[in-house]
């Protein structure tokens, strides 16, 4: 096997970029009390298009490793260097997430510093799945996906309740990390973090599924991707009869359902962009993905703490008093447009900020 990484595919950069742009859109409404309805997550059980965004990003991270790590890992002499580079990158992402939460804790005056988060989960998934990409074969990776889903399903099915605050994931996170969680009630002693420890089992399975889909894409197995998408959607739908679709808990049914949709998105992007020559919309966000997410998150915190964000929403809402949700959407779209300009300028100067 060649020791060189496979060439970049426009479909992967484009899909990653569109996912990051969607992250910015849903994370930055003009006002959280007037969110445009299609941009809302499911309150608890259920699935909305917005719930696909984060798993799709982790899935694409796995796909990318099938091109950047797996081909070179065939040469055993390169594995130590690959492992070192992988773990250093994961550590940098982890530290970036920790610093972002430190900024949030300081600017917003949160009651407690939050340990877990989006970037922290990305770092964990990149590290674990990257090591599997370097040191294991396809059969082992499929086995790990199966074990993760089966073990997590057994934990959830054996629980007394999957309700908010009292489900196994929330209980474990509260026992280990309270009060440093996304939500914590000191009176009841209950807490919850949607990017906590136990639910990361599902997130790891999502990223591994991306690794295997990426391997199929690298091998040109378009039919295999179609079969994988259909299998995941069918299994996810059946599994949801026992374990509901739930992004907060990242349930096994959610892994399979969102995984099937992610494989479908990858297949369509590959056909449209790589094979039929359609424009790689979103590529500029894709080649500066983590930097755009981190920079935009810091910017949003500063705008919020300074009152500028509230002023912008108030001005728009005053211009359309009958449609505050539309004003909120326009704020979000404007924020994405600003960052589209940033990544456009960076790409035009061939500046690619890697973490």
From TrEMBL:
Top-rank taxon, per record: Bacteria
Protein name: Acyltransferase family protein
Positions of transmembrane segments: 52-70, 90-108, 114-135, 142-166, 196-215, 222-242, 254-273, 285-313, 325-346
Keyword hit for Secreted: no
Keywords, sorted A to Z: Acyltransferase, Membrane, Transferase, Transmembrane, Transmembrane helix
All residue ranges annotated as the Heparan-alpha-glucosaminide N-acetyltransferase catalytic domain in the record: 8-159
Keyword Ribonucleoprotein included in the entry's annotation: no
GO molecular function, one term: acyltransferase activity
């Amino acid at each position: 096997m060649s020791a060189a990484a496979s060439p970049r595919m426009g479909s992967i950069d484009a899909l990653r970029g569109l996912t990051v742009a969607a992250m910015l859109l849903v994370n930055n409404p003009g006002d959280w009390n007037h969110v445009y309805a299609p941009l809302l997550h499911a309150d608890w059980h259920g699935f909305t298009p917005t719930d696909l965004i984060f798993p799709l990003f982790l899935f694409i991270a796995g796909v990318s490793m099938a091109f950047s790590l797996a081909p070179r890992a065939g040469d055993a002499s390169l594995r130590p260097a690959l492992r070192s580079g992988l773990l250093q990158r994961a550590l940098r992402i982890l530290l970036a997430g920790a610093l972002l939460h430190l900024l949030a804790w300081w600017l917003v005056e949160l009651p407690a510093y939050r340990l877990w988060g989006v970037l922290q989960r990305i770092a964990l998934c990149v590290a674990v799945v990257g090591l599997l990409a370097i040191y294991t074969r396809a059969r082992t990776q499929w086995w790990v996906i199966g074990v993760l889903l089966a073990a997590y399903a057994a934990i959830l099915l054996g629980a007394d309740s999957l309700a908010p605050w009292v489900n196994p994931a929330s209980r474990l996170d509260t026992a280990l990390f309270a009060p440093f969680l996304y939500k914590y009630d000191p009176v009841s002693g209950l807490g919850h973090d949607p990017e906590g420890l136990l639910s990361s089992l599902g997130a790891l399975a999502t990223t591994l599924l991306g690794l295997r889909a990426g391997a199929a894409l690298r091998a040109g197995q378009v039919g295999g991707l179609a079969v994988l998408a259909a299998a995941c959607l069918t299994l996810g739908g059946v599994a949801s009869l026992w374990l509901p679709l739930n992004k907060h808990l990242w349930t096994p049914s959610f892994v399979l359902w969102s995984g099937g949709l992610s494989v479908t998105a990858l297949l369509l992007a590959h056909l449209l962009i790589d094979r039929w020559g359609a424009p790689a919309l979103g590529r500029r966000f894709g080649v500066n993905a983590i930097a755009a997410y981190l920079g935009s998150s810091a910017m949003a915190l500063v705008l919020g703490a300074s009152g500028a964000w509230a002023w912008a929403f108030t001005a728009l809402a005053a211009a359309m008093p009958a449609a505050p949700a539309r004003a909120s959407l326009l704020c979000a779209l404007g924020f994405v447009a600003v960052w589209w300009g940033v990544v456009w300028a960076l790409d035009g100067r061939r500046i690619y900020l890697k973490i």
